[in-house]
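If you are new to this repository, start here. Below is one unmodified record pulled from the training split, so you can see the exact layout before writing a loader.
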Amino acid sequence: MVPLPQMFAYGLQHVLAMYAGAVAVPIIIAQAMHLPIEDLIRLITADLFTCGIATLLQTLGFGYIGGRIPLIQGVTFASVGPMIMIGTQHDMPTIYGAIIVAGLFTFLVAPFFSRLIRLFPPVVTGTIITIIGINLLPVAVNWMGGGIGNPEFGSITNIALGVATFVIVVLTYRFGKGFIGNLAILIGLILGTVIAMFVGITNFDEVGKAQWISVVQPFYFGLPVFDVASIISMIIVMLVVMVETTGDSIAVGEIVDKKIGQKELAAVLRADGLSTMIGGVLNSFPYTAFAQNVGLIAVTRVKSRFVVAMSGIILIVLGLFPKLAAIVASIPNAVLGGAGIAMFGMICASGIRSLGKVRFDSNYNLMLVAISIGVSMIPLAAPHFYDQFPSGAQIICKSGITAGSIMAVILNMLFNGFGYKTVNEGNAAARKYRHFTRFKGYPKHFYQ
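And here is the target side for that same chain:
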């Protein structure tokens, strides 16, 4: 626990870092479904409100639900394609019917999926953390340019603004002491926005148009419709989400020095499932851990889960008061990009640090890391590479994080067996022999 003023400042920093990603999905869905502006605002406020509830479930937890680690929750981008497909073929209630069932599926299979944690030794987790950082860096670069679709993308003004924000973050991080140093990202975002106001980039017009209070109405678009094909496609999305959540949970565990085992992972996945069901009821979307904020924890070194719980409270307030949400939305993309470079780069650095504990001599670990990162780079280097694949395969392949993570797990099983210890052990016996995690039902000689 930290003092309340500091907790609020740190929590607001997390919200500002993830806000653009949180509101992007409602905007994309509303545009694809040709919804009026009133419904778009309703989707955004419902999303923010549910983000807050989901974050509280994950950070504070109750019973066997919630990992009780500093994970902020947001809408998964893996669901965008399938939701657009379902919405254009059917309607919004069919989308929400599929989301509710997929959330229930995730909740029920969480304890079984969590057993796969044994397939994530340090060589795999370090690779996945590095992949997460690499795949997020292009997001920061696009933000710094002004945002994809911006007619001024790549202008000198946008890039200069992003660089100025980045310099502010670095200098604050280097010379700020204690509390101030930990707020490097927040200070960079605030001062960057102030600079943007002077150069005429920041636009507060939407603040005046936004309502003061908005109440989230369950089933606003009608009672859910349960279509089998739509449900199957959304369940595939949630399987992808569970893989990504596993990687994010392990990454956070590495940063905050908390071991994420089978029990902890099951609790994290249950929270994802319950949050997704709540999202279907409150006109929102499937939820997962936001990898962007993993980097923020690494930068600030503030590891308290109660700080992220405060972020959840702030998100709930933003969902109830659209004017406040509009103020946050006025932060220019270029400013977010300048801060994002530092945050996402820190995730890469955390992955490299984890790989520093791994043995690379007399084994296949170097090839495992090389191939996994290479596969994760395909959608970054060629975004249309998988366009001819079936839609179900595209959900997996077009996410560099998911494809790279799956490849790392498969190669680890191929090269090292199940549960092979890849950490650089300190004793001669450990260096000489392979050690396998005991599986029930396997003959004794399997381990020798």
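Two things worth knowing about this chain: Residues 4-32 form the longest helix (29 residues). The chain is about 70% helix and 0% strand.
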